[in-house]
TrEMBL record, chain C:
Lineage start: Bacteria, Bacillati, Bacillota, Negativicutes, Acidaminococcales
GO molecular function, one term: L-isoleucine transmembrane transporter activity
Protein name: Amino acid/amide ABC transporter ATP-binding protein 1, HAAT family
InterPro entries: AAA+_ATPase, ABC_AA/LPS_Transport, ABC_transporter-like_ATP-bd, BCA_ABC_TP_C, P-loop_NTPase
Residue runs in coiled coils: none
CDD domains to which the protein is assigned, alphabetical: ABC_Mj1267_LivG_branched
Keyword Magnesium: no
Keywords: ATP-binding, Nucleotide-binding, Transport
Domain of life: Bacteria
Domain ABC transporter residue range list: 6-259
Organism name: Succiniclasticum ruminis
One Pfam family it belongs to: ABC_tran
Tagged with keyword Thylakoid: no
Annotated Gene Ontology cellular component terms: plasma membrane
Length: 357, 306, 263
């Protein structure tokens, strides 16, 4: 209990420090870096959300892009200033019931999350009876269906033209708070009895069921929680881009988050955070591959647009083939480990040395 | 009833036109679905990269004819061989190392392989759509009465049936085919009985990819715009076709392919207002079949051992 | 009169053309230890799966009596519902939550009694906190009692085989069952371990007021501990009675002839 209290204090302190850092980034850093930081934070939310189903409940779902689209479109539909809507919906006018409905961003975000969770609940009923690859393909299919519906519901979503003029959100503090709250809520859920039930299902469905865990209820719960946060993350993503378009939410978008959780460790919350940082920053860093490169006056012909994604997918393959458990596996970076490390920075090495003798 | 009205408004000629389109699309789906079902039957995994094997085959044929000026018939043979090799290579590098790994890792590896092929194609061939070259006679339009049919549409079903007959002969009447069936029935027992599993898996990938190449060439002639992502949607639909027919069952995959191909065309024909949803049709069929007959139309029932 | 805890009525299970269990009629009474024996492939585990909801019997009913005396038909109910009603089980090929700790394995088994919903759990509302503390206290007591407390932080899969068997039983006990089904608890154990297990089963029966129904191949265990025995062969019950009667039953001897008892 004592340790527990200490950990809570340390976590709060860390969040305060990080928030200070976010304020600093907001005030002092140029907009390009700020954008990368924002994207990192948003990807962290969505990576975490995907880890709830895939890493903790062991249900391989590939629907994240669809749930993000729902969140993003809620932000798109409700936060564009009413007077600008005619410009956006120039081809086919917006639905008269919606055209004058305006919401502040936070409200649209929550609404997007709730709607995504609701749709996940509906989808979950037939889909979560499936296992493994079947579940993957069915969730992927639903993610595409959501996108197709969005493309066709022109009077609500402006169809293939997308929604522009979303008041852009480029405030690191705002996005940091959203990420921090998501992180804390997801961690609390996963460390509760419900989170343990998720892990039991991941480890052995049949045994979990024999221990009285209702598979359907818990899988659906994990799926809906995951969709909720994916919706929030998608909403932030839409607000960050300032525009939403069905093409932004192709199911290949989900692969980014797949890489995040594979790299960070399926079943590790802290791992997802590391994964999000590495993948987002890495994708930005890899941009050099897309730029023409000249070495000593000779243009290297390999460097041209597209190489970045090739390198990215090769990294994903290497990660899966040779480093299956990622950075954290199913472990977490805990305060105990950090304190232990600070107190005995060389303990790990020393132990190995003794064994060596 | 809108449906009846739609049918009533349709002339016999346009009906025939839709049927031809449906049958040719169904045949293409069938050819590609066979590759999914064979791999699933043996390795119990979705070969996500299969869709991109189709795409690569299109590019092979495209470059063979346009860049290297190889006669089209030789190009087609070369394409089939190259594609089969590509399939085997993917199996060896992305799937074989994970033979004893958890299923989810294999699934991720398959997704990764698919993603890599798409990005590679995008990088090498650029994302701009390219026009599949016109093939003498096959690309031409035949007019029968008021129906206009591309000649390839008549060949697609014929080629599909020939391929299917050859495949069924191999599977049912050769030693290799027997070994394939044994591996898909019980992997461990087949191994103990001295079947060279790795060889059989390679052969399966080679056959599946070769059929995909045949499908891809005809796809290219029929729908000439080729892009690095052209395989994605057909790929998903063909996997669904395999599930609908009963995964692991070759004839089932063909039936599933026809159901999806025909269904898609007929929906657009009868309900033009829903044509925006044509890609959603396959997924709805998938959900329905998994709900009502999860083992597919021709699949066998299996229960997990407790 | 002693209460009947479980009763199967004409339970039959058919897989395609194979009849795995044929017209099974079993009665298990309160506080009894009942054994189900028979050669390999006789349909014993299938019978267990029919009772615990893994399979739904093709024919027949499974009737269970709750501690308050209420009889319910549990045929075709979900395994989780059946566990919640007070039937816990172990598996023939140990099914622990392998990558989780010993402590978590047992704690998870307490989840079925949780009344707080997930919102209350996420926000750690007082109601949930109280329940969580009670669950943890229970698990601590249980693990100390069976001497697994010292290894509580080990991964379940890292325990020696014999301990894993015990852990599986303890996990089942944590669901606070009335009826415990053990599927070959002594499989792979040597005579000394089997003797210890025999004592253990008796102890937990008395300590937790359990009724026990088990499948077992070790005849010394079965004969020593069982109040009554049912013998299955090719899905059909060929004999039932107390250990002495079974040992002298012609049909049972014939069914086992040439069979390795420890197989």
């Amino acid at each position: 209990m004592n340790h527990n209290k200490r950990n809570i204090m340390l976590t709060l302190a860390a969040l305060v420090v990080l928030f200070g850092l976010a304020c600093f980034v907001q005030a002092e850093v140029d907009s390009y870096i700020r954008r990368i930081v924002n994207l990192c934070l948003i990807y962290a939310i969505i990576g975490l959300s995907m880890n709830v189903t895939n890493g903790f409940a062991g249900q391989f779902s590939l629907g994240q892009a669809g749930f993000m689209a729902i969140g993003a479109y809620m932000v798109g539909i409700f936060t564009v200033p009413v007077e600008l809507r005619a410009d956006v919906f120039y081809a086919i006018p917006m639905n008269p019931h919606l055209v004058n409905v305006y919401m502040p961003l936070w409200m649209a975000l929550i609404l997007g999350g709730v709607l995504a969770a609701g749709i996940a609940g509906l989808i979950g009923t037939p889909v979560l009876r499936l296992r493994g690859d079947y579940l993957a393909i069915a969730t992927l299919g639903f993610s595409e269906i959501i996108r197709i519906i969005i493309t066709n519901a022109t009077s609500i979503t402006n169809g293939a033209l997308g929604i522009k003029n979303i008041p852009p959100l480029n405030d690191v503090r705002y996005i940091f708070l959203a990420t921090a709250i998501s992180y804390v809520l997801i961690t609390l859920l996963l460390n509760s009895s419900y989170g343990r039930a998720f892990k039991a299902i991941r480890e052995d469905e049949i045994a979990a069921e024999a221990m009285g865990i209702n598979l359907f209820y818990h899988k659906n719960l994990a799926f809906m929680v995951s969709a909720f946060f994916a919706g929030i993350g998608g909403g932030l993503y839409g607000a960050l881009l300032g525009t939403v378009d069905p093409k932004n939410f192709l199911f290949t978008l989900t692969y980014n988050f797949l890489l995040i959780i594979v790299l960070g460790g399926m079943g590790s919350v802290t791992g997802s955070m590391f994964g999000a940082i590495i993948v987002t920053a890495g994708l930005e860093y890899l941009r050099v591959f897309d730029e023409p490169l000249e070495l000593m006056g000779v243009a290297i012909p390999l460097f041209r647009p597209g190489l970045r994604m090739v390198v990215f997918s090769i990294l994903l393959m290497i990660c899966v083939l040779f480093w299956r458990h990622g950075i954290m596996g199913t472990n977490e970076l805990t305060w105990e480990k950090i304190i232990h490390f600070v107190k005995h920075p060389l303990a790990g090495f020393r132990k190995k040395g003794v064994q060596g003798k | 009833m809108e449906l009846f009205q739609a049918i009533a408004n349709m002339t016999a000629a346009s009906f025939a036109q839709h049927m031809v389109n449906g049958i040719s699309l169904g045949s293409l789906y069938a050819l590609i679905a066979i590759g999914y079902t064979m791999v699933y039957g043996i390795l119990l995994m979705i070969n996500f990269a299969h869709a991109d094997i189709v795409m690569m085959a299109c590019y092979f044929a495209f470059f063979g004819i346009t860049a290297f000026h190889i006669p089209w018939y030789l190009t087609f043979i070369g394409t089939i061989i190259a594609t089969a090799l590509l399939g085997v290579t993917i199996e060896r590098s992305a799937y074989r190392p994970l033979r004893d790994a958890p299923k989810n890792s294999v699934l991720i590896s398959a997704i990764g392989a698919s993603f890599l092929l798409e990005n590679l194609a995008n990088y090498i061939f650029s994302g701009r759509p390219m026009n599949f070259p016109e093939i003498p006679f096959l690309s031409s339009i035949i007019t029968v009465g008021s129906i206009k049919i591309q000649a390839i549409c008549l060949f697609i079903p014929v080629v599909t049936v020939i391929c299917l007959c050859i495949l069924l002969h191999i599977v049912n009447h050769t030693k290799t085919g027997m070994a394939m069936r044994a591996v898909s029935k019980d992997y461990e027992i087949a191994r103990v009985m001295g079947v060279n599993i790795d060889n059989i898996i390679s052969i399966t990938f080679a056959i599946g990819s070769a059929l995909a190449a045949v499908g891809a060439i005809m796809w290219g002639i029929r729908y000439p715009g080729i892009t690095p992502y052209l395989g994605v949607m057909p790929g998903l639909k063909c996997f669904i076709a395999a599930v609908v027919g009963g995964i692991g069952n070759i004839k089932g995959a063909v039936i599933g392919g026809f159901i999806l191909g025909m269904g898609e065309i007929l929906i657009v024909a009868f309900f033009p207002q829903f044509s925006g949803y044509r890609d959603a049709f396959a997924f709805i069929v998938l959900i329905l079949i998994l709900f009502y007959k999860p083992t597919g139309l021709l699949g066998e029932k299996t229960t997990e051992k407790v | 009169m002693i209460r009947t805890v479980l009763r199967t009525e004409h339970v039959t299970m058919q897989f395609g053309g194979v009849i795995a269990v044929n017209d099974l009629n079993i009665v298990v009474k309160e506080h009894e230890i009942i054994a189900l024996i028979g050669p390999n492939g006789a349909g014993k585990t299938t019978a267990f799966n029919d009772i615990t909801g893994v399979y739904t019997p093709t024919k027949g009913r499974v009737i269970y009596t709750k501690t308050n005396g209420q009889e319910i038909d549990i045929t075709g109910k979900k395994p989780s519902e059946i566990a919640q009603l007070g039937i816990a089980r172990t598996f023939q090929n140990i099914r622990l939550f392998k990558d989780l700790s010993v402590y978590e394995n047992v704690l998870i088994a307490k989840h079925l009694h949780l009344k707080s919903n997930f919102v209350s759990a996420t926000f750690r509302l007082p109601g949930y906190k109280k329940e969580e503390e009670a669950m943890r206290a229970d698990v601590e007591r249980l693990l100390k009692e069976v001497k697994l407390w010292d290894v509580r932080n080990e991964k379940a899969s890292s325990l020696p085989y014999g301990k894993q068997r015990y852990l599986e039983i303890v996990r089942a006990l944590a669901t606070e069952p009335q009826l415990l089904l053990l599927d070959e608890p002594a499989a792979g154990m040597n005579p000394k371990e089997t003797a210890e297990l025999t004592d253990f089963i008796r102890q937990i029966r008395d300590r937790f007021k359990l009724t026990i129904f088990m499948i077992e191949h070790h005849m010394d265990l079965v004969m020593e501990i069982s109040d009554r025995i049912y013998v299955l062969d090719f899905g059909t019950t060929i004999a039932t009675g107390d250990p002495a009667a079974i040992q002298n039953n012609e049909r049972v001897i014939k069914a086992y002839l040439g069979e390795d008892e420890d197989a």
